UniProtKB/TrEMBL annotation:
InterPro entries: cNMP-bd_dom, cNMP-bd_dom_sf, Env_Response_Regulators, HTH_CRP, RmlC-like_jellyroll, WH-like_DNA-bd_sf, WH_DNA-bd_sf. It comes from the Bacteria. This is Cyclic nucleotide-binding domain-containing protein. Residues 147-222 form the HTH crp-type domain. One of its GO terms (molecular function) is DNA binding. Keywords: DNA-binding, Transcription, Transcription regulation. The keyword DNA-binding applies. One of its GO terms (cellular component) is cytosol. Residues 12-91 form the Cyclic nucleotide-binding domain. Pfam families: cNMP_binding, HTH_Crp_2.
Length: 223
């Protein structure tokens, strides 16, 4: 199954970072962010794109009543702020580090346009990323419109297995070490935190999974 919530198969950092290009390497630096530091805020000027060298970044926005809505949590090799190259002048979302050792490669819009013009591989990867992002948004809308909350949660857990999971050699369980809080999961699948807690406990009682704050374990007999 292709990842719809994350784009781990499109490691843009490997080919897009200006450090990979001799003409830009000397003039380019990485920026370090601690947990809860903001890379940019809503309504900031959209004059750069960002690649994650390491760490994790939360992308979101605030609703009219001040509620934080999490759109995505991104990891190493992923690009964000890409609307800047599509003509957006202001940010309609915020980007926040959720790791104590996040390292970001920033790319000016003009530099990105030059690299896209001069490098076909670069352009292909950028367009692939944007295409996958539109596909993700379309899929997410379908889930929100046509699937019940438990089904949305189950599909989200399947995606987490692909993105963060591994098989335990001793038990055969699928173990997921993920960066999400229950509030984040609730925001991503369009429900409330109490509902997520209830559903996770129901799945636990059904012996489908076990979980704690940092890990979800899909039990072998249900996997």
């Amino acid at each position: 199954m292709q990842s719809l919530w994350f784009f781990d198969d499109v490691n843009l950092f490997k080919v897009l970072c200006p450090h990979k290009f001799k003409a830009y390497k000397k003039e380019h630096d990485f920026c370090a962010f601690r947990k809860n530091d903001y890379i940019y805020f809503e309504l900031d000027s959209a004059n750069k794109l960002y690649l994650i060298e390491k760490g994790k970044v939360k992308i979101g926005y605030y609703s009219e009543d001040g509620e934080e809505i999490v759109k995505a949590i991104l990891t190493k090799g992923e690009l964000f702020g890409e609307k800047a190259i599509l003509g957006d002048e202001k940010r309609d979302e915020f980007a926040q580090s959720i790791d104590n050792s996040t390292s970001i490669c920033s790319i000016g819009v003009d530099t990105m346009h030059n690299l896209m013009r001069d490098n076909q591989t670069f352009s292909f990867k950028v367009y692939k990323f944007i295409g996958l992002k539109f596909k993700k948004l379309e899929r997410r809308l379908q889930l929100l419109l046509f699937k019940d909350t438990k089904t949305r949660l189950m599909e989200f857990l399947n995606e987490l297995c692909l993105d963060f999971g591994y098989d335990c050699e001793k038990t055969g369980d699928h173990i997921i070490n993920h960066p999400y809080t229950q509030k984040d999961i609730a925001s991503l699948i369009g429900t409330s935190r109490p509902t997520i807690n209830i559903l996770l406990n129901e799945l636990k009682e059904e012996n489908y999974l076990d979980f704690n704050r940092k890990e979800i374990r899909i039990l072998k007999k249900s996997a």
